[in-house]
Amino acid sequence: MPRLNSATDLERLRQEILAHRDPNKPCVTICSGTACHAYACEEVAEAFVKEIERNGLQKEVDVRRTGCHGFCERGPLVVIFPEEICYLRVKPEDVPEIASTTLIEKKLVDRLLYVDDSGQRIVREGDIPFYKHQSRLVFGNNRLVDPKRIDDYIALGGYNALAKALFEMTPEQVLDEVKRANLRGRGGGGFPAGIKWETTRNAPGEPKYVIVNADEGDPGVYQDRSMLEGNPHSVLEGLTIGAYAIGSHQGFVYVRQEYPLAVENLNVALEQAREYGFLGANILGSGFDFDVKVHRGAGAFVSGESSALMTAIEGRVGEPRPKYIRTAVSGIWGKPSNLNNVKTWATVPLIINRGAEWFTSIGTEGSKGTMIFSLVGKVNNTGLVEVPMGMTLRELIFDIGGGIPHGKRFKGVQTGGPSGGIIPEKFLDLPIDFNELTKVGSMMGSGGMIVMDETNCMVDTARYFLNFLAGESCGKCLPCREGIYQMLKILNRICAGKGRRGDIELLGEISEVVRDASLCALGQTVPNPVLSTIKYFRDEYEAHIEEKRCPAGVCKALITYYIEQEKCQACMICLRECPVGAITGGKNLIHIIDQDKCTKCGACLEVCPPRFGAVTKLSGMKLPEPVRQGTEVIRNRGGRNE
Ligand SMILES: Cc1cc2nc3c(=O)[nH]c(=O)nc-3n(C[C@H](O)[C@H](O)[C@H](O)COP(=O)(O)O)c2cc1C
Ligand code: FES
After folding, report:
1. Ligand 1 lined by 167 (C-beta under 6 Å)
2. Best mutation site among 259, 305, 368 for ligand 1, i.e. most ligand atoms within 8 A of its Cβ?
3. 192 CA distance to ligand 1 centroid (A)?
4. Which CATH class is domain 556-641?
5. Cα–Cα distance between 130 and 143 in angstroms, integer?
6. Cα–Cα distance between 68 and 232 in angstroms, integer?
């Protein structure tokens, strides 16, 4: 690779790359993000390489492995350019047909296309409802670049913003642009990036550090991982621009060890960026020196907190410290250190290229630009979505997410990771931005969005998140260590049917102490799932405590599976499927569940044929008297049987 010594060199290289690329030449892109890997995308890619060879099309067709396209629910995704024909859930055995039909005959393989609600097939990826309502400004290039080929990024204008910053702007002008863009951090509290940069820049002490936070420990969240896996240069470019503005010559990427593909692609990107001269001494001949080290985190959620993360980079246990002096002033080894989330850094090149005015024209008054969410849970289209700030929850969950599966009712959505709050149905029209989410007791966090339906118990949900956080508390400060434990104990007993009058109030009191007295934002935000569920779903807590009933039928201690004798047709299916042999009966004998043996796994309910509907789940009700063992079944009487 030639080393580039000026902005002109970069532009010349871009023109050379483009000159060797025919925009009309078919290019088969195969999503190779982590989710698609789980669906054997590598085998699909290899099958394409072989099939193209077999047909002698190597010169006519390109094959490219890309990062996550976002619609992970339907992976592996294959998109064929220039038409942007999108095939979903592609298996290696589909490849010969795609090659012969689409690449050779120029026809579509209908069965692999997206089918919308009206039964119409959609050809272009961008026309699929999941994509149509999004604004993929930061995430969009993932589907176009091979993360292991820097030329793909350069062909799309990559490193143009860095060249612009280095040669056309002073560090102060870069800082001013980011401040005017009002870019708020995408990793947690939404703190304005420009103000943090300025604090580090003005803080006494050298050297100064800039850091990418790719710890991302929230359950169900994977957009930072997908950015690093799919388009690592966009993050490195943003980081280098930030370093220039701040006056830093050393950067770190703190990435969790459990993200092997992100680490691999990041290391390849660093190598290639160094070879071209986007990193190292005298970047692009500008006189500015900057390089980046990768620090692999050991997978502790709390180590994503800024002071804990910096302590971990120093080689010590990743625990938070009191932040009377902020890390922006005294961070790694006591030096000024600016930490930003992956998405925050990846947004910077856009702002430098297109300007603060453009950026502030997107979003709401207090939250500018777009946000990438992990849309998961009880929603039809799970995946990664990028929308302008201010889009409503309803648009995101129903227009993009395709609504709730199996015709179930939407119940709530948790935003902001494990310590976010759960937002009920009445706020579906809430515009999503930092301030609005906080107003209703939740937060933006790093963009987690877990959708829940009527079969989710809200007490159990709060218990689940508290259980996660109890395991992740570092234990350094007492309010967090003991407070979460006590709250979890109360939630456990409520779910176990042993809740006491006054437990709801006690949860509220402990929440206040934990929120106000904890050392770091882990403890300070822990009460969110508890307080929000008490506020919006108090009747569920009361049903658990007063009536020993779980309205959603989730808490095992409060539910009973029962076979209605009038409906049982002695088909033996549940009897065979019960993993603990709790069901007795015979070919002509009514089946009975031995409640002492039953582990409440629900297998009997799942397998009972719907035409019989003999198994029911009861909660808070007295169990009907069981029939005598050996009672014969009376067929075709009552119930829903034939
Ligand atoms: C317990 C805890 C875990 C956190 N984990 C992350 C994380 O995984 N990624 C992240 O970007 N920020 C995380 N944060 C927020 C960081 O402390 C910090 O605010 C953020 O990285 C700053 O970047 P931003 O201004 O670009 O959002 C966490 C905070 C806490 C309290
Ligand atoms: S990993 Fe392939 S679409 Fe997300």
Report:
1. no
2. 305
3. 13
4. alpha beta
5. 15
6. 12
Which numeric CATH code is attached to 370-453? Answer: 3.10.20.600
Question: Which residue pairs, CB below 8 angstroms and at least 24 apart, start in 271-274?
Answer: 272/1, 272/150, 273/150, 273/233, 273/236
> Which pLDDT does position 638 carry in this prediction?
45
User: Which-ligand-closest: CA of 221?
Assistant: 1
pLDDT band at 593 (very low <50, low <70, confident <90, very high): very high
Separation CA 101–CA 85 (nearest Å)? 12
Q: Name the average pLDDT for the chain.
A: 95
Answer whether residue 161 shows pLDDT above 90. yes
Closest approach atom of ligand 1 to CA 309: 17
Nearest Cα residue to atom 3 of ligand 2: 72
Ligand nearest to the CA of 371: 1
Superfamily of domain 24-81+85-123: Glutaredoxin (3.40.30.10)
* Residues near 120 by beta carbon (within 8 Å), at least 6 away in sequence: none
Q: Looking at the predicted structure, is the pLDDT value of residue 170 above 60?
A: yes
CATH fold, domain 458-546, is: de novo design (two linked rop proteins) (1.20.1440)
* Domain residue ranges in the chain: 24-81+85-123, 150-360, 370-453, 458-546, 556-641
Q: Domain 150-360's class?
A: alpha beta
Cβ of 344 less than 6 Å from ligand 1: yes
Query: At which residue do the structure tokens 């993993």 appear?
Result: 579
Q: Do 268 and 65 meet the contact criterion of CB atoms below 8 Å apart? A: no
pLDDT tens-digit map of 104-114: 999 999 999 99
Percent of the chain with pLDDT over 90: 91
Q: d(Cα 99, Cα 21) in Å, to the nearest integer?
A: 21
Residue-wise pLDDT for 73-120, tens only, equals: 999 999 999 999 999 999 999 999 999 999 999 999 999 999 998 999
CA-closest residue to ligand 1 atom 18: 306
Question: How far is CA 390 from each of CA 361, 387, 393, 433, 578, rounded to the nearest angstrom?
Answer: 12, 8, 9, 6, 49
Flag whether pLDDT at 143 surpasses 70: yes
Which residues contact ligand 2 via a Cβ below 6 A?
A: 31, 33-36, 68-72, 75, 77
pTM above 0.90, yes or no: yes
> In CATH terms, are 24-81+85-123 and 370-453 the same topology?
no
What pLDDT digit, counting tens, does each position of 543-588 carry?
999 999 999 999 999 999 999 988 999 999 999 999 999 999 988 8
Question: Does the pLDDT of residue 495 top 70, yes or no?
Answer: yes
- Judge whether residue 150 has pLDDT over 90: yes
Whole-number pLDDT of residue 636: 57
